[in-house]
Write a structure and sequence with these properties.
The strands form 3 sheets. This protein has a 7-stranded mixed β-sheet, with helices on both faces. Strands 9-10-13-12 form a 4-stranded antiparallel β-sheet. Strands 1-11 form a two-stranded parallel sheet. The protein folds into 2 domains: 96 residues, Alpha-Beta Complex (Aspartate Aminotransferase, domain 1); 241 residues, Aspartate Aminotransferase, domain 2, CATH 3.40.640. It is globular, with a radius of gyration of 21 Å. 41% of the residues lie in helices and 18% in strands. The protein is an alpha/beta fold and 347 residues long. A hairpin with a 5-residue loop joins strand 12 and strand 13.
Amino acid sequence: MISFQSDYNNGMLPEILEALAKTNNDKTPGYGFDSYTETAKEKIHKAVDNEKADVYFLVGGTQTNTTVIDSVLLGCEGVICVETGHIEVHESGAVEAFGHKVIMLPSNDSKLSPEALSAYMDTFLADETHPHMVQPGMVYISMPTEFGMVYTKAELEQLYATCQKYQLKLFIDGARLGYGLMSEACDYDLPFLAKHCDVFYIGGTKVGAMMGEAVVFSGMKAPKYFFTNVKRHGALLAKGRMLGIQFDTLFTNNLYFKISKHAIDMAIRIRSIFTKHGIKIAYNSPTNQQFVSLSPTLYDALSKNVAFEIWERKSDDEIICRFVTSWATKETEIEELDKELSKLLKA
């Protein structure tokens, strides 16, 4: 069975596996205090064009989101995100479990607009009873969004300026950051993104690594005791060099961006195949997540030989399904999908 189920259903890049095997017998200090991790940090400093940025390696996305949010916010503060935001929908209440309310705002094509943020903050501050409420302290966005959308340069500039106007920290979830940056819809690079937020992370788990995310404090210094909070949140890896080696590899010879571009190329091919067969594109995603509308009959037939996810059962006659590509997606798999659709639609 061919699979477009997710971008982390393969183990890891062969280059990472080779690097881990090559260094397997090395004896290094734990918790990221090793030479491989230091080298990885240096390469990320160069990639984001900020030698003073604080860089930390954490084990996974949910741990990263909760650790950053809990470390930056005061106990009485909450975090703003759109109603489709990952921390609201798919993280099992992890942010709330550490005492911070997720404040939902409406989205514009799964993105948070400066206008929506300003309207909310103006209304909040105009309420004379707002000192009795959860205080907004941070804005959380994903790049790309949960629907695969990309913030433009102008949108990011305006959103960050709005955050600064209301003294809100801007945190960018970059679990799929490589795919967002390498999309043709993206009109900026990694250094620009780093300069237009307070903290973000470079996703590894969904972009070629076995596991791990690189948190970068680019617009602020890391909060006091951040390392301790990483451990408190269960996000600290004792064998820290395993994360360092992976990001050292990913940021050698632009590998991170090359594999992300490959995933985008494969996604565009999938999109063209669905379009060729007259299948409706549900969301106009320019990244590695492609969403299509299938009938229940076609879904049942296609899912027998192709693995993919149901995103939303929109009605009795329409199922929104997600097809995801990654570094590991092969052209032969795309061709097999095309053949399968041809066979089923002909029948």
